[in-house]
């Protein structure tokens, strides 16, 4: 198509999809950014002092830890894990999303629980404590596990209590 000046329009070929050379950021910038991203993504393992300050108690079997990830503006989420494997998650905040599992809801021990019956065996999958002080709700749920790990996760979750 001719341009307004009457000269024909020259169409340049599209650039190839081959990667173009880039200028690398200084190593210190890359290291800092990568370290910050890794720190934000990695859960923080709580020490005994931090665990004592939680709004709940938990009996941890040997080899287990409590970690925390990114908190929200008025809530915290904790994970009870063995190594990289999550067993139980705990939400402490104003309003949980209880229930997340389908099953029979029962009231016992000062909490609401969801119990699933599977092959005649009752499995307590989640629990909700409601409190008059912050955090108003402490919601505990079991990770989807099988066999002995499932039983262990259910036991850990059932032994959690609010302070």
Structure description:
The structure is a single chain. The protein is an alpha+beta fold and 163 residues long. The chain has one domain (43-162). Helix content is 20%, strand content 34%. The protein has 3 helices and 10 strands; from the N terminus they run αβαββββββββαβ. It has helices at 27-41, 48-52, 147-158, and strands spanning 44-45, 56-57, 64-68, 76-82, 85-93, 104-108, 111-118, 121-130, 137-142, 161-162. The strands form 2 sheets. An 8-stranded antiparallel sheet has the order 1-3-4-5-9-8-7-6, covered by helices on one side. The protein has a two-stranded antiparallel sheet with strand order 2-10. Strand 6 and strand 7 (111-118) form a beta hairpin. Residues 1-31 have low confidence and may be disordered.
């Amino acid at each position: 198509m001719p341009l307004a000046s009457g000269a024909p329009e020259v169409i340049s070929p599209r650039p190839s999809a081959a990667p173009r050379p880039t200028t690398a950021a200084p190593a210190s910038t890359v290291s800092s950014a990568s370290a910050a991203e890794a720190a934000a993504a990695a859960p923080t393992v709580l020490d005994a002092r931090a665990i004592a300050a939680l709004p709940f108690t938990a009996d941890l079997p040997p080899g287990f830890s409590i970690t925390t990830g990114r908190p929200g503006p008025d809530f915290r989420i904790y994970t009870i894990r063995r190594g990289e494997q999550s067993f139980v998650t705990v939400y402490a905040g104003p309003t949980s999303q209880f229930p997340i599992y389908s099953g029979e809801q029962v009231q016992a021990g000062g909490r609401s629980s969801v119990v699933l019956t599977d092959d005649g065996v009752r499995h307590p999958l989640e629990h909700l404590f409601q409190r008059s002080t912050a955090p108003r709700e402490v919601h505990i749920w079991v990770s989807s596990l099988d066999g002995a790990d499932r039983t262990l996760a259910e036991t850990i979750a059932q032994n959690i209590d609010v302070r």
